[in-house]
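Pilot study result, target chain (421 residues):
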Amino acid sequence: MLKSIIKSATFKQSQVAIISTIINGTLGALFYITLARLVGPSSFGLLTVSLTTLVLIADIVDIGTNTGLIRFVSSNLTTDRNKAYRFLKLSLEIKLIVWLITFVVIFSLAPFLATNIFHKSSLVSPLRLVGFGVGGALLFTFATSMLQAFQKYFLWSLVNITTNFLRLLLILILGFYLKLNVQSSLATYIALPMFGFFMTLLLVPAREIFSAKSEFLLLKELLKYNLPVAIFTIIAAFSSKLDTFLSATLLSSREVGIYGAASQLVQVVPQVVAGLGLVAAPKFSSFTSEHQMVIYLKKLQLLVSGLVLIGILLLPLAIYLIPVLFGQAYQDSISIFIILFFAMLVFLFSLPVHSSVIFYFGRPDVFIWVSIGNLILVGGLGYLMIQNLGMIGAAVSVLIGTAFSFLYPLVWLLVKLKKNK
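Predicted structure:
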C-alpha cells in the first residue's frame, strides 16, 4: 500500500501542494509575526477583528461559487471546454456583482458594527476598508479555484507564494521605513490579492473565458449545486470565526490580540488542508465508481495521518518559538496555541471524509447539519466558556466543534458505504 501511494500521481501532486503550502504557511506566519511585533497586542487585536471580518464576509458572499466552479469546470474540461469557460465567466460575474453590493452595505454599516457589536469605535475606518477588501478576497479565490479546476498545481503555488512574499515584503518596508498602523497594515493585506488575481489572468486562457457566450443559461445548474454549499459555507464560516467575534465582544483588545496571535499561528494547518484539497477535490469529482473512490480515500487518509503525526512531533518546537518570535508580550498565547493546534489537526484528519462526501457523492447538504452543530457548540458553549475561562474557553470550544465536524460526516460516510455494498 505504502509503495503504491508513493508512486501514485496523487502523491506527486500532493507533494507540490504540500511543499508550496509549507512555503505559503511560513510566509503567512512571518507576516503575522512581524505585524504582531510591530503594532503590539492592542492594535493587533483590532487587526484580528478586521481581518476575521473580511474573511468571514468573503466566505459568506461567495455563496458557494468556488466549490461549484471547481466541480463544474473540472467535470467539463475534457468533454466540453467551452462550457467550462462559460462556468468560469459566470462565476466571475457573480463575484463582481456580489462585491459591489457588499461594499455599499459594509461601508454604510461600519459605524454601527464598530460601536454596537464590537464596542470599539476605532474599528469604523478599518471596517470600511474591509468592505473594499472583500472584493480582493473574492477575486483571489476565483483565481486560485480556477487554477485548481485546471489542475495547474505549480501555477497555483506560484501565485500564492508570490502574493504572500510581496505582502510580507511590503509590511517590512512599512514597518521599518514608513508608518505602520492598523489602516496601512490592512491596506497592504487587501492590495496583494488583487495583484494575485491579475497575475493569474496572464497564466490562463483569459481571452477564451471572457469571450464565452450565454453563460447565464448555466445559472440554474450552478445555483442548484451552489445553494446547499452556500448554506453550509455561510454557517461554517460564521462558526469558524465565532470564537474571535465572541472574544472581541467579551474581552479587551489586548486579549483579542493575544488570542489572534495563537489563532493565526495555527493557520498553517488549514493551509495544508487547502493544499491537499487542491488535489483531492477534482480527483473525487472525476471518479466514476465507488471502488475507485474508496482506494483513493484510503491512500489520502494514510497521507494525512502521517502529516498529523509530524505536526504532533513538531509541537514542542512551536511552543518554544512563540515567545521568541512574537515577543514576551504574547507569552499567554502558548496554552491557547496548543488547544487550537490540536483542533486544526483534527480538521486536517477530516479532509478525506469531507472531500468524498462533497465531491464524489455530491452531498454538500450533509454539511448544513455539520455547520449548525458546530455553530451551536462554538456559539452557545463558547459564550459560556469565554465568560468563565476567558481566552482558554474560546479555544476549547473550537476543539469540541472541530471534533463534531469530523465525527458527523464520518458516520454518514460509513453508513452510505455500508448501504451501497
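One observation from the pilot: The chain has one domain: 2-420. A full batch analysis is planned for the follow-on phase.
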